[in-house]
Design a protein that fits this description.
alpha/beta, five-stranded parallel sheet, four-stranded parallel sheet, 31% helix, globular
């Protein structure tokens, strides 16, 4: 019946589409019941086919609806890829069979590549002066080159702002209404579950500005595109320990860089964490005139910052294998014992950092 269906329904795009879609869903019995009557006589076959054709062309199963959670590069590029594939279809009926809705929690598309200086409310974004750690040629797309977008060569390492502009430019190329067509901002997906009986995903969302839950929506497919960096890793227990000791300086997360220069210029700061964000922020702090930077790294090997052997103006010191355990007074923080450091007073089993004005949590 399967081969017969494909053969006899090849002349009608709607009938062919419906049968193919049904076969993909594994329901061959339904195709059997519609195709078997075609086998009697030539006259009877034509009569039955015409009835089937008229019936099926009146039946519109509706588009395949896809929910995409996350409006960063992954979510935007998924919608862009589907549109690009469908734009090559000659069959207009097939072209309109897919609808994509991208749910983005923040107020604008771009995900983590947005600027924290422009972020509002629940937006989570990069610090404004971030530069990529990978070479720019590794981020270039063959269907949308840097020359086409910028009209000039780009640096080996790209600024956050330029890369975000390039990402948004690619998805809107050829479709100026891309964001209006697909992206719903200020909307948080609070629950998504698959309903087996309906073969649908039930998606519950909430407006992050009003806190009001939106109407339940149903989708045929659901794509997770929020990555694993959608939420900041804020070590609340560590912060509570520091505050209990009387620390009165600023404690901020690496995503909260709205007043970065004000927080570090002419001050002594401590960066907690040894990843790339700590390396970047240490260098940025030196550029804006920090007094001194201490990077506290739990990993005894020193993390990513260990790869930097020489720091500008000798203003950066990396303490390996250390953990912040609290504070003593308004500007003194306490670190856990480490046998690797000769400065440690073994009798007390701890190390103190004095005159710390700002603590920046580079904890992901």
């Amino acid at each position: 019946s399967t081969d017969s269906a494909r053969k006899h329904l090849g002349g009608c795009c709607r009938c062919r589409s419906l049968v193919q879609r049904t076969l993909l869903n594994g329901d061959e019995r339904w195709v059997e019941t519609m195709v078997v009557p075609f086998r009697f006589t030539h006259y009877h076959y034509l009569s039955q086919f015409n009835k089937f054709h008229r019936r099926m062309c009146r039946f519109d199963p509706g588009p395949v609806r896809i929910a995409v959670i996350g409006g960063g590069p992954s979510g935007l590029f998924f919608a862009h890829a589907v549109n690009k594939i469908l734009s090559g279809e000659e069959d207009n009926f097939e072209r309109r069979r897919i609808e994509i809705t991208v749910f983005e929690k923040s107020s604008r598309p771009g995900g983590q590549w947005q600027s924290s200086a422009e972020a509002v409310d629940n937006d989570v974004a990069c610090y404004d002066n971030l530069w990529t750690n990978g070479a720019s040629h590794g981020h270039e797309f063959p269907d949308y080159t840097y020359d086409e977008h910028f009209g000039r060569p780009v640096d080996v390492y790209m600024r956050r702002k330029d890369l975000l502009e390039y990402i948004l430019g690619r998805v809107t190329k050829g479709n100026a209404n891309f964001f209006d067509d697909h992206v719903v901002t200020n909307t948080e997906v609070i629950k998504a579950r698959y309903i087996k009986e309906r073969c649908k995903f039930e998606v519950r969302t909430r407006n992050v500005k009003t806190g009001v839950e939106n109407n339940i929506q149903y989708f045929d497919k659901c794509v997770w595109a929020a990555g694993d960096n959608g939420l900041r890793n804020f070590p609340q227990k560590l912060v509570d320990q520091v505050l209990r000791g009387g620390f009165s300086g600023r404690i901020i997360h690496s995503t909260d860089m709205r007043d970065f220069e004000k927080d570090v210029k002419g001050k002594r700061i401590a960066l907690i964490g040894g990843g790339f964000s700590a390396e970047d922020l240490a260098l940025q702090a030196v550029k804006v005139g920090v007094n001194y930077v201490t990077i506290v790294v739990r990993d005894a090997r020193g993390g990513e910052v260990a790869g930097t052997r020489i720091w500008p103006y000798d203003k950066v010191n990396v303490l390996r294998g250390m953990t912040v355990t609290g504070s003593e007074g308004e500007r003194k923080i306490r670190l856990s014992k480490s046998s690797d450091l000769p400065e440690v007073d073994e009798s007390k089993g701890c190390l103190y950092l004095d005159d710390i004005d700002t603590i920046i949590l580079c904890t992901g």
